[in-house]
Amino acid sequence: YITILNEFYEMPQMPKGAKEGILKGMYKFKSASKNNSGDLKAVLLGSGAILQEAVKAQQILEEQYNISAEVWSVTSYKELYLDGVETERYNLLNPLEKQKTCYVQQCFEKENSVFIAASDYMKVLPYSIMRWLPGRLVALGTDGFGRSDGRAALREYFEVDSRFITVAALKALACESKIHPETVDLAIKKLNIDPKKISPLSI
């Protein structure tokens, strides 16, 4: 598929076997390089140009915090949502038949992790698939009114760059009591994030 954006970056090769997932709305873009035996894992769902920020966050989480992270490219939340709704409808109207699972459930049926969705969309869009994910979901998006003089500033303003994806993953793990909240606080300082910055929802 071709998506036209106003940003230049090298387009990666399509992963082997990803065609079906691309059409269904999601595919694994980059596997985790660390295989932790415990519960320290995050699944990063990226869309569009923000997928590159998710890849950067994966590197930070694995190299600096020893947290296993994998990146999925979400090509269509709408397709994922419609598939989930249609699956639920079938199960509702066919109670005596074998109950189906939707594509999102199939992708993560054995997953024990937190999920961070980052995109140029409003946060409500990734939250539309939340009930089919097996773990905590945190959505980062562009709710509010943008004020910036460039892409980097805009992503910082909307809190969707690699630093905020990293902190969101750490915070989600802290909420699951898998890491100490102090780790999140230290990461905010290390990544030079201002906790008192203006909210994107402020006009």
Written overview of the protein:
It is globular, with a radius of gyration of 17 Å. Strands 1-3-2-4-5 form a 5-stranded mixed β-sheet. It has helices spanning 19-24, 51-65, 77-93, 103-107, 124-127, 151-158, 162-175, 181-190; strands at residues 26-30, 41-46, 68-74, 114-118, 137-140. Helix 2 (51-65) packs across helix 7 and helix 7 packs antiparallel against helix 8 (181-190). The protein has 203 residues and is an alpha/beta fold. Helix 5 (124-127) links the parallel strand 4 (114-118) and strand 5. It is built from 8 helices and 5 strands, in the order H-E-E-H-E-H-H-E-H-E-H-H-H.
What is the fold's blueprint, element by element?
Layout: H1 19-24, E1 26-30, E2 41-46, H2 51-65, E3 68-74, H3 77-93, H4 103-107, E4 114-118, H5 124-127, E5 137-140, H6 151-158, H7 162-175, H8 181-190
Helix pairs in contact: 2-7, 7-8
Please supply descriptive tags for the structure shown above.
single chain, 203 residues, alpha/beta, five-stranded mixed β-sheet, 8 helices, 5 strands, 39% helix, globular
